[in-house]
Design goal:
Blueprint lengths: L4 E7 L12 E7 L7 E9 L4 H7 L18 E8 L9 E4 L6 E5 L4 E2 L16 H18 L6 H15 L1
Antiparallel strand pairs: 1-2, 3-4, 3-6, 4-5, 5-7
Helix pairs in contact: 2-3
């Protein structure tokens, strides 16, 4: 039976030290409805990436922080269950940025259709997604500079290692 509720993980408060379960809330609400140009997606996979720690801390960063009461951010792989966007149909598998929730409405133009025949759909969040691209650029750019005798800046090397270590292992 299809779900009629959206389940979201929202930030209760910015963690002090290591995040704990009581820093988050599980919130249920009615399923959202798509408008023209939008798609309602059911999340199949969601990302858990190192950069998210900084996003929930509330500290100033290169990316806007998640505020208390907001859904935890993150990339998702989902299935379109209702589409009002000409480029996507019910049943299409898409890569989006819907955050930690069971369902979300997204602008159709902001979704990327995935072909499950090309690769397992979960790889869009790993080796064929942002962590994989980070590893690829790190090996070609930072790795090339290191081979030529120059030194890679510590923060770049650290970032590259943190976000791509499991990708190249």
């Amino acid at each position: 039976m299809p779900s009629t509720a959206n389940r979201q993980i929202v930030l209760r408060r910015h963690p002090l030290g290591m995040p704990k379960p009581d820093d988050f809330d599980l919130v249920e609400s009615p399923l959202p409805s798509p408008r023209d140009g939008e798609v309602l997606c059911r999340t199949i996979y969601l990302s858990l990436d190192p950069y998210m720690r900084g996003r929930i801390s509330g500290a100033r960063s290169y990316a806007q922080p998640v505020e208390p009461g907001q859904v935890i951010v993150g990339a998702t792989v989902g299935e379109g269950i209702e589409s009002k966007y000409a480029g996507l149909a019910r049943g299409d598998i898409v890569l989006g940025y819907d955050g930690w929730q069971s369902h979300a409405v997204a602008k159709g133009g902001g979704l990327r259709k995935l072909d499950p025949k090309q690769a397992p759909i979960s790889t869009a969040l790993g080796v064929l997604g942002m962590p994989g691209m980070t590893a690829y650029v790190g090996l070609l750019d930072i790795g090339a500079r290191a081979r030529s005798g120059s030194r890679a800046p510590g923060t770049s090397a650290t970032t590259w290692c943190a976000s791509s270590g499991s990708t190249i292992a």
